[in-house]
Amino acid sequence: MNAALAQDYSGAPLGAPVYELNNVSKTYARNLVVALEDVSLTLRKGSFTSVIGSSGCGKSTLLKIMAGLIPPTKGRVVLQSKPVTGPRHDIGMMFQQATLFPWKTAAENIVLPIEIRDGKAAAKKAIDSAHDLLEMVGLEGFENVYPNELSGGMAQRAAICRMLITEPAVLLLDEPFSALDELSRDMMNMELQRICNEQHATAFLVTHSIQEAVILSDEIVVMKPRPGRIAEIVDVDLPRPRTLDMMTTPKFGEIVDYIRTLLDKGEDM
Amino acid sequence: MTDVQVNQASEPGTEQDTVWVQEVHFIDSVPRWIAMTFVFVVFIGTWHLVTAFELVSPIILPTPWETLEDMVFVGKNLLSGGYMLGALWITFKEVVYGFALAIALGFSFGVLVGETAFGEKAVMPYLVAIDTMPKVAFAPLFVAWLGFGIESKVALAAFIATFPIVVGTAAGLHAADENARMLFKTMGASRMQTLIKMKLPTGLPQIFTGLKIGAVGVMAGAITGEFLGGGKGFGELIRVAASQLNTPRVFSLILYLSLVGLAVYAAVTWSQRKIVFWHKERVGAHDH
């Protein structure tokens, strides 16, 4: 594996805080809706955190604030000890749709963030790293293939590579595999775990699936709606690496049940 | 024509295979060129019968044979570089210049209207207002302003073809989905980068749709300009032949003229296939 991949994305040792939110609130001025109230959260280096909650609990507002797409009304948002005041290159993001551009090959799509940041010449130089990343996600030989020839799962793998090419300090994942069928989804989740582990990545996942959250996460942020706030942060102390078999263990079932109870309580309010 | 499909379904208790007879529509089994030839033969046949029984005066409708003879005559004149070739060349120039002007104007206004809030708010209503006017009615004005040369025809051709290109470009710039916009935002792309690297390529299919409609309009504009503003183009030849009641000539001139329109349209389609290689377009819903 090449140097760019083996290297940690930030100098911080595993477990050190990477992304910190302190008392973050968001009120939309347009209709005075309180989307988010008093959210405090710490993402530690190499940890995997999921956020789960019913619709209207402020998950997507939280994600947009963390991505620097919208400003918070109150509170501090700090990534790698610098406040987040807009989109940043040390934030990697992935959406439900792969959003690969059909006029670019897989490799060209992957180096797009470099092209935007440093221009065409730099993007050309980064093509080799794109090849390495494709190899890591099991898409070796697909460098020059156009996206319309990729399956949904393959497209999402390429989107993972595009997110990783700039070596971001934090990965924001907005229901990345929810458009895939269940079989590919389980497989992609295991892939995601492997990749995050190899890269020592700090990941933050928004999901609707309790099972998905439990199998992937170290910590699960359970949110409740109106106004969107944190109900509880649940630690998942299943051993790593996680396997799909763990989904049938009593321990897994207990955690899932506990989170479901929390979510139901939130709904009653 | 029927196709028999055999499904082997083993139902408990029955020994019999399930056999379906599936109707296949006759037209689905006929190649396109045969179907097209059929329509052509019926058309020429009807035309022939109408003239053979003199249902219509020969001055109004020539026989297919007379038309073919005249086509050969005009074709020889064109190939030998006669005066008709000169006229066709003039019309061709009007069409090409008009189209180039329409692309430049249409694209610029399209970007203005599709990309800027000012364009959408303040400019678009005027464009829509002008677009609803019958644009050929402006022909006498263009002649008054620009004279009887090719300039007035180029202007009218461009005037007609600009609007579909504006609409196509503006629609194309709105075609990018929320995810793509968000992705470019998170990558910290500037407005110019977002426009050039994402919105424009995403909108190319719509832009080309505008170009194709424009390519048809540019031809109509050039010929209308020639009918109303004189000059030495092909439209003038048609006008003269019609005033002399030389209907076979009118027919054959129109057929040759359509080759110019076809060439422009083919050029647009060809570049679309080269440039927008990722977007597969179907001719019609039944074209499998």
Q: What does the largest sheet of chain B look like?
A: 2 strands, antiparallel
Strand content of chain B: under 5%
- Beta percentage of chain A is 15-25%
Tell me the radius of gyration of chain B.
Answer: 26 Å
CATH superfamily of the domain at 25-90 and 170-268 in chain A: P-loop containing nucleotide triphosphate hydrolases
Task: Give the class-level CATH name of the domain at 25-90 and 170-268 in chain A.
Answer: Alpha Beta
Give short descriptive properties of this protein.
heterodimer, A: 269 residues, alpha/beta, Rossmann fold, 6-stranded mixed sheet, 4-stranded antiparallel sheet, globular, disordered N terminus, B: 288 residues, MetI-like fold, two-stranded antiparallel ribbon, 10 helices, 71% helix
Protein model, in words:
- The complex is a heterodimer of chains A (269) and B (288).
- Chain A has a domain at 25-90 and 170-268: P-loop containing nucleotide triphosphate hydrolases (Rossmann fold).
- In chain A, strand 7, helix 8 and strand 8 form a beta-alpha-beta unit.
- Chain A is globular.
- By secondary structure, chain A is α/β, with parallel strands linked by helices.
- Chain A has a six-stranded mixed β-sheet, with helices on both faces. A four-stranded antiparallel β-sheet of chain A has the order 2-1-4-5, covered by helices on one side.
- Chain A has ten helices and ten strands.
- Chain B has ten helices and two strands, in the order ββαααααααααα.
- In chain B, 71% of the residues lie in helices and 4% in strands.
- Chain B has two domains: 2-60, no CATH class; 75-275, MetI-like (MetI-like fold, Orthogonal Bundle).
- Chain B is flat, with a radius of gyration of 26 Å.
- Chain B has helices at 32-52, 64-79, 83-115, 117-132, 139-146, 150-173, 178-186, 191-229, 234-243, 247-275, and strands spanning 2-7, 18-23.
- Chains A and B meet through helix 4 of A and helix 7 and helix 8 of B.
